[in-house]
Design a protein that fits this description.
Layout: E1 19-24, H1 27-35, E2 44-47, E3 55-58, H2 60-63, H3 73-79, E4 84-86, H4 90-105, E5 111-115, E6 118-122, H5 133-148, E7 152-157, H6 160-167, E8 175-178, H7 183-188, H8 200-208, H9 214-219, H10 222-229, H11 232-239, E9 256-267, H12 270-291, E10 293-294, E11 297-304, E12 309-315, H13 323-335, E13 344-352, E14 355-356, H14 357-372
Parallel strand pairs: 2-4, 7-8
Antiparallel strand pairs: 1-6, 1-7, 2-3, 5-6, 9-13, 10-14, 11-12, 11-13
């Protein structure tokens, strides 16, 4: 979002855009329940049931017990002893996600994916010429259910921030509209911890400053928010008024792609650590191939038994061109970590500095083109 000038504040008139935020309901867990009738109606967690496992997704039946994504598996089992753990099948989730994106593309080219299971759509001027964003959302949700057997929820509003908030209002399998007249008042009554873009640490800091709701946030002036929250303070100032001018960006490229694994037993040997890294590298490179992206910086993440964490990175002039190159760089970074005094409980790899394959090919061709000229 562009920063407003102090002397000429942004007008508080809402944008005329029509934005839909579509969010699949308990996506990973719902896919598993769809494909395995024995899981339907039961509390399901996608993830590892091991002592150090983590819940990647929880069904609504599991959520009633307080089970949530990113929760340690042992904690989830304490909350719900009947919890059924299922190993994730990311290839299946990606295939279903592609089906959903194909439906979106029939309505608008302005699609900004946030993850496999959610996206923003700008339907202000849509491919079907439909005047109502609410009707478009209803139709998309029905099409998704017919094509995949899964339910989706939707939020409809005049900007991205409010559309995201709205999609949580009638979950699962519902939708909600926040109109321009409702926007500022809707935000005013919400706890700041529910705002997309305000995490637990920031919410706690706001609480310490006496900011508990959107209304409290709106009472603070721009100078105060910038002083305490830096550039983010400008964003908080405007969203507290229901204003968000960020466009839906169909060309949004993620900054990094990574994967990690926590082990049931600590690793002390470099060969064992390298064996555990190979499937992680394979997963990252499969994503790069499927998405047509490449990256220039490889980062190795190591967490030890005492929870101390380190990272080691290496950047290259040209993007990493193959799985073998990614593996070689990662192996070099790993060798620099050993010998270790403490066992390793987690290893992860991230590839960043991403760009499309077309950009990479253009960069590689540029020197040859200059020579020909």
């Amino acid at each position: 979002m562009s920063e407003p000038a102090e002397t000429s504040p942004q007008p508080e008139a809402p944008s005329p855009r029509k934005i839909i935020h579509v969010d699949m309901d308990a996506f990973y867990a719902s896919v598993e329940q769809r494909d395995n009738p024995d899981l339907r109606g039961r509390p399901v967690a996608v993830g590892g049931a091991r002592e150090r496992g983590v819940v990647a997704a929880a069904s609504y039946e599991a959520r009633t017990f307080g089970v949530r994504s990113a929760m340690a598996s042992v904690t989830a089992l304490r909350k719900c002893p009947e919890l059924v753990f299922v190993k994730p099948r990311f290839d299946v989730y990606k295939a279903v996600s592609r089906q959903i994106r194909e439906i979106f593309a029939e309505y608008t080219p302005l699609i900004e994916p946030l993850s496999l299971d959610e996206a923003y759509l700008d339907v202000t001027e849509n491919l079907k010429g439909m005047p109502s964003a609410s009707i478009i959302a209803e139709e998309i949700r029905a099409r998704i259910r017919d094509a995949t057997g899964l339910t989706a929820s939707a939020g409809i509003s005049y900007n991205k921030f409010l559309a995201k908030l709205a999609s949580d209002e009638n979950k699962p399998n519902g939708q909600f509209v926040i109109t321009p007249r409702m926007g500022a008042d809707f935000v005013a009554g919400l706890p700041v911890g529910k705002f997309h873009g305000i995490g637990p640490a920031t919410a706690a800091k706001m609480q310490g400053l006496g900011i508990a709701t959107g209304s409290d946030l709106r009472e603070r002036d721009l100078d105060f928010l910038r002083r305490h929250f830096g550039k983010s303070g400008t964003f908080y100032y405007w969203i507290s008024r229901g204003i968000d001018e960020r466009p839906v960006r169909p060309d949004r490229i993620r900054k990094s792609v990574g994967a990690e694994n926590t082990f049931g037993a600590d690793l002390h040997d470099v060969d064992a650590a390298w064996a555990e890294l190979q499937p992680i590298i394979g997963k990252i490179w499969s994503y790069c191939e499927a998405s047509g992206i490449r990256g220039r910086t490889v980062t190795l993440k190591v967490k030890f038994a005492d929870f101390r964490q380190i990272t080691r990175s290496r950047s290259t002039a040209q993007p990493v061109a193959s799985a073998a190159e990614l593996a070689g760089t990662t192996q070099d970074l790993l060798a620099g970590v050993f010998p270790v005094r403490k066992g390793i409980r987690l290893l992860g790899v991230t590839l960043s500095g991403l760009e499309s394959r077309q950009e990479t090919q253009a960069d590689e061709a540029a020197p040859q083109l200059r020579l020909l000229l």
